[in-house]
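The following block was generated as part of the benchmark described in Methods. Ligand: zinc ion.
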Amino acid sequence: MKNKTLTFLGNDSGFGKKNNSAYIEKEDKLILIDCGFSVFEIIKEKFDFNKYKEIEVIITHLHNDHAGSLSQFILYLWFIYKKSVTIFSKCSRIKDYLEITGTPKDAYILKNASKSIEFIKTEHVKYLDSYGFKLNIENKNIIYTGDTNEINAFLPYIKNANELYIDVSRYGGAHIKIDDILNTLEEIEKNGTNIYLMHIDDKKYIKSVIKNKDWLIDVN
Ligand SMILES: [Zn+2]
Ligand SMILES: [Zn+2]
């Protein structure tokens, strides 16, 4: 049984019910990865935010299924729990985004890297700059692609990775087509990296392509 570091709140593609989003709790710190429009309702019920000394949110890009309830979440923590959040993002317009949505400046700190987080620029759509990242946590080296239509940007990092979380789809376009990447993923797995597929648009089809591989993620 593989021991996955991240727990997923959802792994649907953009028009699905539960936006692709994950978290990890480490002692008194909560790290949330992306905060799409369906995420706030889930995390509001799921977590007792009183217990965290630090809350961090990593934002990969500004599509609504990744950042659509970010401002709401920051406001909630600020007004209900009197807590500020550290936002990690390299998105060129994240500052504008937070300002336009009326997010108080005191309620968040914006950073674009840390000792354990390094963003990796990738290609997704021409309208937005998009990033995956490398995360070092619990002695594990994790690569998370975010939404991407290519794997090349990540390959140099994957060599030393314990876990790869990768965006795949049936149809391709703004996302990596599962049929195109299957052989590469098999190679990566052979080299010792556990594979987890995210942002699923057609689970049945992807299951049929990967056959008996345990690459699909359970959502908690
Ligand atoms: Zn998306
Ligand atoms: Zn996207």
